[in-house]
Design a protein that fits this description.
75% helix, 13 helices, Na+/H+ antiporter like fold, mainly alpha
Amino acid sequence: MCLLLRKYSIIREEDGNVFARLMTQAVLPAVIFFQLSAIPLKGSQFLMVLAMIITGLISMSLALLASRLLKLSKAKTGALMLTSSFGSSAILGYPFIIFAFPNNPEAISDAVLLSELGVGLPMFILGPAVAMYYGDRKENFIMKKGFSLSYFRSPIFIAVLAGIAVSFIPVNRDSSFIAPFIESFKMINGAMAILACLILSLQIKFKSLKGILPLFFISAILQMWFQPFISHTQASWYHLSTIQSQILVLISSMPSAILGPIFAKRYNCAPETASALVLSHIIVCIVMIPVVFYFMG
């Protein structure tokens, strides 16, 4: 439906920046705070985060190895690493989790912590570093450091800390003072899926994969096939619950994070290649995610 809205110019490509800022600066922080503040943290959640980080690092290393074997240029090597490591846990992952586990605040809390600490944090630290090292621009370390530190000043990271802190404070969520705030958070939470659809519909551009088809197969297999199986293996090692294992697998099967092309463009690290790979992932995930879950039983 959002693609039809774009087709008839009811929403336009230039509106994407507004929707994206609304998502990252307002909606996501509110959802994160709301979900994390509801249930105190458990040790198993940090094992999920550890499994996600390890999975992303292994995939990034394999992407580097594949780049060496294919003798890719330095910039395309960076683009492949950026699009083969950490997935789109926020824009796509959250709506998937909310749909798959309706009215299950514990499952959503697991997904939020996994997404922000297991995907968002390493992506904001490693993404600029990879793009800077393999990009064509001769940027200095201070600029990379500033890009990385921006995550720690962002509303998203502040919401993570605030939500964790409030989760340990006994609060009567049914009181006449607190209940209206809880209801407002619920409404924002419900709006996230449609906002994600709006953002994706404005970003999708059907580009030719001519010349980068091998990169597409490598990145898609690493991102949406290899990662879920590695995550599932670690879940069994760490004795995670069934729901936590499913959440870990679902988040790790998401297509490449949209942050990858942003970092690639910032440091001139083959941004067109990175964008084409990410957008093709978004389309292919319609088939890949159900197939992965089918083969994993």
